[in-house]
Amino acid sequence: MTAQDTIRARARELLENGEVTTFIGWESGRFENQTTPLVITDASDADKLVCNEYCVNTLAKYARDVVTRGKVGMVVRGCDSRGIVRLINDQVINREDVYLIGVGCAGVRDRKTGELLKKCAECRHGDPVICDEMAGDAAGRPQPSERFKEVHEVELMTQPERSRYFEGVYAKCIRCYACRDVCPCCTCRECFVDQRRENWVGKQNNVAENRFYSLTRVMHIADRCIECGECERACPMGLPLMKLNRKVIKDLNDLFGEFESSMTLDEEPGKLITYDLVDCEEFM
Amino acid sequence: MSVVEANKTAQVGVPDSWEPKVIAFCCHWCTYTGADLAGLNRMNYPANVRVLRIPCSGRMNPQYVIEALNKGCDGVLVCGCHPGDCHYVTGNYYARRRMMIFKRLLEYEGLEPERFQVRWISGAEAGKFRDTVMSVVEQVRALGPLNLTREIPQFELPAVPDGQEAFNAVPEEVMPEEVSA
Prior knowledge:
B: Rossmann fold, 4 strands, elongated
């Protein structure tokens, strides 16, 4: 019995028993390698669910949207489960609101090239960190050795090179806010970019406004980023957003001690919402 | 010729009349009072600095810095009470962490470290305020105007395919390799 069969059977049971009102998983499109997230409320739809190596979407953010309808059943891998932990720790949802079926993940593949996605090649936790039950075995894949490799590469550039590099990035950005929409950390009821009257960020699409948006986004998710890499995958312009997110995580690690966000439900408060009297002093 | 003058003449296209524009975000309880004291003591410091009062250095939003640089400032200075002296007890401890991270992020993005500086200046340190402002303005003057790209550079659009060939072309999404083979 494969993990997919277990998921279908359990989803049907849960929906029939009324233990959950909605179930979130993936379904195939016309071909097996095209999958989209699927939200079902009817037990007869359970056979539409799939779980294969082309399930590229991380589901965590959908929990926030459907949790108002009642208890949500979900399939979770490493990234999904850490997203759920993030939502719970940010008090967006409660632990009782979700029923999690864990699957071990060995990485998902690009539907066109068949190669392992970048976010999965860099993934450090393929197996769920929380779940109510496991469907199939944990994948237990080895962690990649270098967490901040791409950050080091940029840091080695000279200052004008880095300036040119990121200006190129911002010149490409079309500010569709896809990176915000998929991010499990971006759960403000009203995002600053939508506050048109306050006019934090202008409506023009130019390098200055794109820089403003991008840097603010990075500072907002700084110590909560779960490194799922969804922002980069969702970006239609293929911008290297994780190079920014990981830079902040790397600095936080270097300055305030090693940490990894959203690994447990009782994690200590984020590095930027706490302080220490003995933090290093460089502004004297 | 001083180092500063040598640097300035080396920059191409910078008019002699150019003056750096530096914005200083000052905490109401310490640095703003310190700046006031500098004024009372008739201390001279460059007029290039624009002092803006914020209630506490913990109020310092990273967005203010990006906006200032985007809108034409050449340097940004953030000042607050010494750690331990905050009027709101802990505000500058939070600011310290946040600004340390943000400063590194800006430098990673290619901003010169001198253009964004943070200093703790108490209400009695009028001399330190004057010295800080003078050194920041001199450093920014030596760097020259901040050449941030603000607009999208012009680029050529790819040629639009036309004619029957384009009409008959099958989008790659519809026909993956394994099916067509």
